[in-house]
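We modelled the chain as a single entity of 197 amino acids. Its sequence is:
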Amino acid sequence: MHGPTSPGWLLVTLCAATGAYCLLRMRSHVEEQRRAAGGEALMGFGMAVMAVPPSVFIPPPWAWPAYAAVFGAAALRALWTARADSHHLHHLVGSSAMVYMAVTMAVSPPDAHAHGAAASGVPVLTGVLLLYFAGYVLLSGARLLPWTGTAAAGGSAGAGGVPGSAGGAVGWSDRPELARACRLSMGIGMLAMLLAL
């Protein structure tokens, strides 16, 4: 993506750390957590590589079509799995946004990458994706806020106030708030990448 070097490295670090945590979440005992974590790890690492500042590394011309193919396949998988779980619709939008950014970078002139000039994406599509991810970030942030109403009303919070823990210890890879923070980080990263497009 285009933009200054320091924020670019911050974005690379954020996305790589998120991808690494998602890889660790794949060790969860909950099958759905493992399945979702794999797609999120791919997204995190893909965003990290895409965010490397162009003053450091300019990908070869074949890299952008390869990105589009990988994330196109991820989008098809998300579309297929969305039949059973609507959470995968977000994965579909995220993978489609990565395809869009890869195609935009592929058709932009090579010297635009080196000089930090803006790529020429479709402004309406970029705007719609920005609105979606801004809303997603706000919703994800709100979900991280502590809610005391459920536990006070006799909700299903177990030991430590973790929903669904039923008094047992919950492994760190199964903590829902960490998964939400991971998704929030990737949403913020996607917003930054779309703004830099």
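As a brief sanity check on the tokenised model: Helices lie at 5-25, 31-50, 63-81, 88-107, 110-115, 123-144, 149-152, 176-196. Residues 151-167 have pLDDT under 50 and may be disordered.
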